[in-house]
Amino acid sequence: MTTQTKTTYTPGPWELVHHTAPEHDGDRAIYGPGKNPTFICDMNGGPNDDSETLANARLIATAPELLGVAKTFSQFLGVIGHHEKMKSGVDAVISKAEGRGE
User: Which of 35, 58, 59, 67 is most buried, taking the most CB atoms under 10 A from its CB?
Assistant: First the structure.
């Protein structure tokens, strides 16, 4: 029996956008895909924005892709076997990302 997890987040890919418009209170924002992209979050670096804020924004923007890679890797580990500890670690991260491992 296979359990299908319902996606409860905006599907990817997500895009990091650099804002300069006054209606945005942050310097960077992340949007979901589509003709009318879904707003994901604002990164409030402010006037003293630094490389850490940009690195965090890049990491958040790649979250859907990272989750997809983790799922593929978990399936691969299940097929080749003998990597139960690694597979359980990957599965724990996937569960946490999907809101099941909190």
Answer: 67
